[in-house]
Design brief:
heterodimer, A: 644 residues, alpha+beta, Penicillin-binding protein 2a (Domain 2), Beta-lactamase, Trypsin Inhibitor V, Chain A, 3 domains, 5-stranded mixed sheet, 5-stranded antiparallel sheet, 22 helices, 35% helix, 19% strand, B: 91 residues, mainly alpha, 2 helices
């Protein structure tokens, strides 16, 4: 039986539901409130923070422009090079890290440890290291050690034209030479882009960044010819070393265009390894001024001939080697009595030159010097180009005029001297020297001397070399060479002239059809001081190489041969040896073979034969067939036009 | 079908379309990020190859430098030809 009088239980479920609903509503409101706070109140701030986290600014820059010679040979190029830095606060064991880095980089670990002193956040350990070193550092996985890629400038030709090219600083900015003067053209551009990055900080590709190469600097093509440059630098080095000189410089110019083919200095300077304390990067050809000495005489004589003051045959009395102008003594190296103008140049008489100069007058001589570019910058794109030193004409008394007539009392740069001789070699038309290769650009000259005056001076310069003049050591057999020696005393810092000299030589190859102008100078030679002895032989060597490489040295011989050969000879059947058996031990029988066949066989063995006679077929040979290959690589072939 | 039924169907279709479009958007976004990673990797590779190419060019020009060639030629016993050792062959 059930109890019926008990009190019925109270149904609280409704209240519970309402309570739960209320709690949910409260929570939902809290969420809404939070959402409102995040989205509306703090929204802009959080959006900024998110942008900072997911978007980054990236700078894209190109590479510095390259420098080439006229034939496209690379002279300067920027490449990516790794540099190593550390964050000392991330390193626990500094000594171990220093030791490992020191072993890889070849540095003293003590110095590295000292660099990583307390309180420093960032320290460069070594900049522009090799790829092998960078790989070794990466393999070590040292804490707090990082690699950064930087651009480094490389000059693959080493010291070639080092002073002319100049160099760049750590930031890739040109601070010397052409690197400086063409910095704006060579410098790459850069641009900033916004790129997305992930939570780990890795940057994602952005289509905005585009092609990196479009930011590269512009290339520069010079008129230099690396082959000519090498020949000139080697000759200059030999000249300075043999003369035991302090330094030297040389310039080679293509006469018809004014293009500078070689620009040499000695001692050499390698822009790959700049040592600032030595100052050997000085571009002396453009910057240094020197008294030209006798190389100035032909220029003065050209002015005198142009002004009809004298003729090549006009005689001047040369006072037996000693003369005085207003108390200032003028001396010649030899005693001369009467000399024609031609012989004054040939024997380089100071007294004769002074007399012609005095007859010409200061105003006229000054005018010609100005027209030729002395006393002002030539305007080549080079930093610090010197204007030379030419006093105002009102300061020229007889003594100064006499001095300037034989190349003392004025300062010139090698560029100015070369440009003046270029004018004479170019039939009296002054052409601007060019350093930047612009093949299509027309050459515009200005006439300074009449063609017949220039021809007369060229004939005098030829006599200097051909006859018994001062430049006989520049002779090249079968080629007409024009040249002038220069031997100038250097002004002493204490006043007057000391015991130091400048020896120089200027030559034009070939004189009858000028193609190359070569200037070379040795400063303070100790093994003598005459330009004709110390410098002329090496200028000759440069001339031989120039003419050989351009085919002009062999040309007269070839022409003579061609002229003597009758057309029938070529049509005559030549019994060629179809197959020449070559034994590795003994000389083959080349008799009856063509020159080409013989050369192919001999050159393959490293032998360049000497060839005599005329024709296209080998008549005789030495060593004889069957003899052993010559150990000294000497071989002589005699030619004939007739079948063997 | 009554007007209410059509309304519910439209709402349902829009809901499904929204879901599909939303998923599509997520997929496109993932693909974009993946492609950006790939592109970045390729760009890095290209840059490395270009840098390597630049270094090789410098090396090549060093090896072709007249001074280097001359030194190697002299080592091999070669020397500049004398005047009587030059023949110019004309076509």
């Amino acid at each position: 039986m059930t109890k019926t009088g008990s009190k019925p239980s109270k149904d609280r479920s409704r209240g519970k539901i309402i309570f739960a609903g209320f709690l949910f509503a409260l929570a939902l409101m809290g969420l809404w409130a939070r959402a409102y706070f995040v989205q509306v109140v703090k929204g802009p701030e959080y959006a900024k923070m998110a942008n900072r986290q997911y978007w980054a600014s990236e700078t894209v820059s190109g590479k510095r422009g390259e420098i080439f010679d006229r034939n496209g040979l690379l002279l300067a190029k920027s490449i990516s090079t790794p540099s190593v830095y550390v964050r000392p606060n991330e390193i626990k064991d500094r000594w171990t890290v220093s030791q490992r880095l020191g072993a890889i980089l070849g540095l003293n670990p003590k110095n590295i440890a000292a660099e990583m002193g307390p309180g420093k956040r960032f320290v460069w350990i070594a900049r522009k290291i090799s790829d092998a070193q960078a790989q070794a550092i990466t393999a070590e996985t040292l804490p707090g050690v990082y690699l950064e890629t930087e651009n480094s400038r490389q000059y693959p030709q080493g010291h070639m034209a080092g002073q002319l090219l100049g160099f760049v600083n750590m930031d890739g900015k040109g601070i010397e030479g052409l690197e400086k003067s063409f910095n704006d053209q060579l410098m790459p551009s850069s641009s900033k882009f916004t790129v997305q990055r992930d939570a780990a900080g890795k940057r994602l590709s952005s289509p905005e960044s585009g092609d990196r190469s479009s930011f590269n600097g512009q290339d520069l093509r010079l008129t230099l010819d690396s082959q000519v440059q090498l020949a000139t630098e080697e000759a200059l080095a030999r000249s300075v070393i043999r003369a035991r000189g302090k330094s030297g410089m040389a310039l080679v110019v293509e006469v018809p265009t004014g293009d500078i083919l070689a620009w040499g200095h000695y001692p050499f300077f390698n822009p790959n390894a700049v040592k600032k304390i030595r100052g050997e990067w000085k571009n002396r050809v453009a910057v240094d001024i020197f008294e030209p000495g006798s190389t100035m005489k032909p220029i003065m004589v050209a002015a005198a001939l142009q002004e009809k003051v004298c003729r090549p045959s006009t005689e001047y009395y040369c006072e037996n080697g000693k003369w005085s102008v207003k108390g200032r003594r003028v001396k010649d190296t030899h005693k001369y009595e009467n000399l024609t103008v031609s012989k004054i140049i040939r024997y380089s008489s100071n007294i004769g030159a002074a007399k012609i100069g005095l007859e010409l007058g200061a105003a006229k001589l000054n005018r010609y010097l100005q027209e030729l570019g002395f006393g002002r910058r030539l305007g080549l794109p080079l930093p610090g180009e010197s204007a030379g030193l030419l006093n105002p004409v009102r300061q020229w008394k007889d003594v100064e005029l006499a001095n300037i007539s034989f190349g003392q009392g004025l300062g010139v740069t090698m560029l100015q001297l070369a440009e003046a001789y270029l004018c004479i070699a170019n039939e009296g038309v002054r052409l601007p020297l060019r350093l930047v290769h612009e093949p299509g650009k027309p050459v515009q000259g200005k006439r300074v001397f009449d063609p017949d005056v220039a021809a007369q001076v060229m004939a005098m310069l030829e006599e200097v070399v051909r006859e018994d003049g001062t430049g006989t050591q520049a002779r090249i057999e079968g080629v007409r060479v024009a040249g002038k020696t220069g031997t100038a005393q250097k002004a002493s810092p204490t006043g007057g002239y000391g015991g130091e000299y400048v020896a120089s030589f200027v030559a034009v190859f070939p004189a009858d059809k000028p193609r190359y102008l070569v200037c070379m100078m040795v400063d303070e030679p100790q093994a003598g001081h005459y330009g004709g002895v110390l410098v002329a032989p090496e200028v000759r060597n440069v001339g031989v190489q120039l003419l050989t490489s351009s085919g002009m040295l062999a040309e007269p011989v070839e022409k003579m041969r061609m002229a003597k050969v009758s057309p029938e000879r070529f049509s005559a059947p030549v019994q060629r040896q179809e197959n020449i058996s070559v034994d590795p031990q003994v000389m083959p029988d080349l008799q009856g073979a063509t020159v080409r066949q013989a050369l192919e066989i001999l050159v393959a063995r490293g032998i360049v034969p000497k060839v005599s006679g005329q024709g296209v077929v080998i008549e005789k040979q030495k060593p004889l067939p069957g003899e052993k290959w010559p150990a000294d690589k000497k071989c002589q072939l005699w030619l004939t036009g007739q079948p063997g | 079908m009554s007007g209410d039924g059509k309304g519910y169907l439209s709402i349902g279709a829009m809901f499904v379309a929204t879901i599909i479009l939303g998923l599509g958007l997520v997929w496109v976004n993932i693909e974009r990020v993946d492609l950006a990673y790939e592109l970045k990797t390729l760009e890095r590779e290209l840059q490395e190859k270009q840098d390597q190419n630049s270094k090789l060019q410098v090396e090549r020009h060093y090896l072709l430098a007249p001074a280097t060639l001359r030194a190697r030629a002299e080592k091999a016993g070669l020397r500049p030809p004398g005047r009587d050792q030059i023949r110019i062959l004309q076509d």
